[in-house]
Amino acid sequence: MANAPEADKNNPSEDSSEGQTLKPRDDAQQVETKPKAAGSVTHTPNSGEKRHRFAFRPTHKAMFIGLGVVVVILGINAGILGFLLKRESSNSKAISDKGVSISPGTLSKLGVNDSQIGTTNEKLVVDPSAQFNSKVTVGGDVKIGGQLILNSTLNATTANLSQLQAGSTTANSLNVNGSATASTLSVRGNFAVNGTAQFQNGVTIAQLLSVDSNAAVSGNLSVGGEMSIGTLSAGQLVVSGPIQLGSHIITAGHTPTVQASGAALGSNGSASIVGDDTAGTVTFNAGAGAGGTGPLVYVLFSSGYSAKPVVVISPVGSYADFFVANVSTSGFNIDVSSSNSVSPGGSYTVNYLVEQ
Q1: Beta strand 310-315 pairing with 347-355
Q2: 67: helix, coil or strand?
Q3: Residue 80: phi, psi to the nearest 5?
Q4: Which of 65, 91, 106, 306 has its CA 20 to 30 A from that of 247?
Q5: 68 lies in a domain?
Q6: DSSP 8-state assignment for residue 288
Q7: C-beta of residue 252 within 8 angstroms of C-beta of residue 276
Q8: For residue 49, what pLDDT band results from cuts at 50, 70 and 90?
Q9: pLDDT in tens, 116-153
Q10: How far, in Å, CA of 86 to CA of 93, rounded?
Q11: pTM of the entire predicted model
Q12: Where are the alpha helices (DSSP H) in 99-187?
């Protein structure tokens, strides 16, 4: 039992609560020991006995202090990293909100040879080609010195164009105050012309053409299909094919002049005419000494024909002796072939039809 304290002192696994101070020593150096109490036995190790070295073990307090230092360092690093990330996010947001500021050196590389980008009075000149992959909004006017080539649709609220050349153009409403030249114009809706419309070349109308007012055609008018006309007024009508009329033929024009100058009509005979150069009725009255054969009356056209026409007469009544003579571009005669057909004081009527 007296050796128990000495054995505890030499056991390295049972250290005191206080820290040990390690000092280098020689193996031959004697182990320093504390003074022993009276009556204790001093153990001196033999030369062949294995010596025990002191092992360093940190206390719990030192361990907690070390862990605290590590946690503080990690916290400081996390704070610095968060601050840097926040500042980078703020810079990115400022760039997206306010745009990108380009330095004068960068603008010089891009071909900007005027002032910096700032006020509306300054000009930005870009010498090389510029491509914008997204939308471009311009608050002021845009002046293009060269051609404007669009690969997509042009949407414009109001367009004032001095000259427009378009291969294919679709317009819901087109107002042209000046001149407009179109090689091919396709109008799906209404086409209103308030002024004069001049067509220098051919005009093809696939469907109905409705003209509310007068239509003046200075050149030729060719109609391949059916043409329905309420009233046709023509200075000259040339028809190459047959004419089919579903109603009456009514002629109009100035009334010709009739002269009762034939010897067969007598010395004081008279004549009158109703109609025009195409058709009409001649009425003549025989005077004293009427009878014999030869001319009765002469009809003078109000407007002469370009060539000698064909004149057909039809006496009203049983007077087969009346016939046409001396037909010319100016007029014709009505003659009698029998001396017994006309009597003094008699009245006679003859209808005529003239065609060229």
Answers
A1: antiparallel
A2: helix
A3: -65, -45
A4: 306
A5: yes
A6: T
A7: yes
A8: low
A9: 556 666 677 777 888 888 888 887 788 888 888 877 77
A10: 11
A11: 0.42
A12: 104-110
